[in-house]
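Entries read chain and fold; for instance:
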Amino acid sequence: MNAPRSIGSARAGLGEWYIQRITSIYLAGFTIYLVLRLWLDPLPDYVAWRSWFAQGPVRLAWGLFIASLLVHAWIGLRSVFMDYLRPAALRFVASLLVGFGLLALGLWAAQILFASNT
């Protein structure tokens, strides 16, 4: 009797699909919130912007936005590389460059988020 085969990596694709959808919902929602917030109650100067940004919930929302953006970009670009870059070495180099680039952007954003004290 033959045992059923596991579906292996097909399940990984479904998990990535869910992560992309969740991050896209947050990205869209935060963008709408930000546009409405700045349209309905614009910040008149740098001091007002800085004091608004220094609030804990605002910083947390921005941190989640940046993390969602980086994860969303990584999964999307990785999928494109896996589908369209056939030579394994080229796929590896492209993934490595994008990975380090996104990591650098994430660290830079973290530095901005944690350094902005009023």
